[in-house]
Amino acid sequence: MTDRYILLPGRDTPFGADLDASGCNFVVWAPDAERVELCLFDSKEQEVARLRFRERRGHLWYGYVQGVIPGTLYGYRVHGPNAPEQGLIFDPQKLLLDPYAKALSRKLEWNDELYQGDSQQMMPKAIAWEDEFDWQGVSSPRHTDANTVLYEVHVKGFTQLHPEVPEQLRGTYLGLCQPAVIRHLQELGITSVQLMPVASFMSEPRLIQLGLKNYWGYNSLCFMAPDPRYAVKHAVTEFKTMVRELHRAGIEVILDVVFNHTAEGGQGGPLLSYKGLDNRSYYCFDNGGFGPDFSRYSNMTGCGNTFNVDHPNALRLVMDSLRYWVTEMHVDGFRFDLAVSLAREGGEFDPYGGFCKALIQDPVLRNVKLISEPWDIGPFGYRLGQFPTQWRELNDRYRDTVRSFWRGDMGRMAEFATRLLGSRDIFPKSLRVIHSSINFICYHDGFTLEDTVSYEQRHNQANSEENRDGHGHNLSKNYGIEGPTRDPKICRLRVQQKRNMLATLFLSQGIPHLLAGDEMGRTQLGNNNAYCQDNRISWVNWQLSEEDEGILAFVKQMIRIRKSAAAFTELHLADDLYFGVRRHADVVRWYHPDGNELTDSDWNAPSAQALVMEIVAAENQEHWLVLFNASGYAIHFSLPEPGGKTCWTLAADTALQDGKHLLTDDFPQLVAVCSAHAMKLLRACPLGGCDIN
Predict the structure, then answer these.
(1) Which residues, 6 or more positions from 540, have their beta carbon under 8 angstroms from its beta carbon?
(2) Where are the alpha helices (DSSP H) in 50-209?
(3) Secondary-structure class of domain 2-127 per CATH
(4) How many helices and strands, by DSSP H and E, does the chain display?
(5) Catalytic residues
(6) Which is nearest to 452 in space by CA: 403, 416, 405, 485?
(7) 666 Cβ partners below 8 Å, 6+ apart?
(8) In the chain, where the domains are located
(9) At 598, which helix (H) or strand (E)?
(10) Which tens digit of pLDDT belongs to each residue from 320-348?
């Protein structure tokens, strides 16, 4: 059977498997190897040929194999010294995946028994992939930052329970682009879905032993291969189909990418790819007395290892991967998990080091959305506001401030106002665009919105870590009862607080980020670290209660208001110099409920829990008032004059189910009552009325 494959002289570029009409050129990086063997397999993953590369240039091994056709399965066996003290751990018994694999024969699943000895049966095989895909002339919608509304989605969890998605497509790439799903996203007003990791990944051996699995996918291996577990048949083709149909609907696709660590883990972890090719270069190690201590993998990620993007070859792999996703898979941007670990050089964070400079100058990548998770767990790892200007950054201080203000914490009013206006204390007005802040109330790692108003303690017992995992500082409140309740008073207050936080999110400067399901009351039953829960704890429930329907309608209303009003998407204040000086600068004024403008003493009053924000967007002829009342009692607000032949018209009231009726019919026009734990949005409209949303 091996006669069908003939090894011929090849070329040393590009990396990976490069098909042509007669065969395939293979290139792999293995600088310390003594021998590299290419293993070819049939469709049943039985080995049919093993070819030893004869050509080598520097750190590269390569060869051209005549007879390889699209769909051929392959892997590598690498021979070399086994000297762990030197970081060399070659083992030819372990079948290794190509770091440049574009597709895998099946999902990567840990099996301790099959890994022992020869690992061939456990390992999926890379596919020599050639995909002639018809994009049908559909291109990216390319939304501006001002118009962007992010929506964080898990490919499986979002559609696994969707009644209008065909059962065979639920939990898949194709399920995510079904008409009913796209209709939900469009009606909601979403511009960009941010997919939790879809690159091939593996559940940690520890989780397998506990009968659990890595559901979130933050344990990647092959950075370019879409995970087959979300495919019906062909992951690459189905992923492209999903992107095409979302683009056709005007929705961008952002990938959450995990380059900070890999599924190979730390000391004693398995050889799946990088360790068996070049352990010393692909990973970071702690310092020893005379150089790296190869017995201790650096763990700035909390996941056992840290990928060494500081090394030229590892950086090249990351950059090639990003370009591949953009040019071949047509994605629109990336959210970088633990991005600080990628921007470290010599262990120190450098926002203008190799990784960041490579992105800035790259002609493909400099034009896509770049979002950082601006921290890792290494030394001085919290770097919010310190990434280059082209980046947008997850703002956890926004989350914490909004949560604490609305639950009634004292002394948070000044910081709350700062977050509303784009967190200019973090992103300086002269250096960073107003959209630098990614504003969020909830993210995948933490409480859902429903759980934020229902639990004060995490309830992570299902994770089998004795409830020690997950964050203990949640800034949540249960309003009297821990967990679900039928108490009508508590239920009303919980719904109202959800509206408060959602309305705040969509009226803030910056880019709003919504966690999928928060618009429908999704709960994880108090689990704030559901990374290993591939079940109903994590899946979105599409059977909505009347209360859930109300929240959904409210979110749609707030997104419509945001999109129709430049005042909430792109304010340009007189001292905001990023775009230069404007002829007609926007104006923001702040008032005490009695109608007087706030003074320093008002801002710093420890008991202050109510304020008014007035926005005059002169260039767009918009005039808005937002009344915030985080206190436990109703407040009469004295309103400023709307000016001209206009009157204040209610656009939204979080204390009302439908948000359409004033509570103040018995009061003069310049007095409004804001209920306890509520906010009101008013617009100055002509006496004949105006279209608010």
Answers:
(1) 157, 158, 159, 160, 161, 162, 516, 517, 520, 522
(2) 112-115, 155-159, 173-176, 179-188, 205-209
(3) mainly beta
(4) 16, 30
(5) 337, 373
(6) 403
(7) none
(8) 2-127, 150-265+308-542, 568-686
(9) none
(10) 999 999 999 999 999 999 999 999 998 89
Report in angstroms the alpha-carbon separations of 619 from 72, 420, 510, 613, 685. 60, 20, 19, 18, 16
Q: To the nearest 10°, the Cα dihedral for 345, 436, 440, 423?
A: 100
Digit-coded pLDDT (tens) for 518-540: 999 999 999 999 999 999 999 99
Cβ neighbors of 87 (< 8 A, separation 6 or more) are 279, 280, 285, 292, 294
Return the percent helix, strand and coil in the chain, to nearest 5. Answer: 25, 25, 50
For residue 236, give the amino acid letter: V
Separation of alpha carbons 580 and 570, rounded Å: 14
**Three-state secondary structure along 211-280?**
CCCCCCCCCECCCCCECHHHCCCCHHHHHHHHHHHHHHCCCEEEEEECCCCCCCCCCCCCCCCHHHHHHH
Is the pTM higher than 0.85? The answer reads yes
Peptide bond into 124 cis (omega under 30): no
Domain 150-265+308-542 has CATH 3.20.20.80: yes
The domain defined by 568-686 folds into: Immunoglobulin-like (2.60.40)
pLDDT value for 1: 47
The answer to whether 531 and 218 have CB atoms below 8 angstroms apart is yes
Identical fold, 2-127 and 568-686: yes
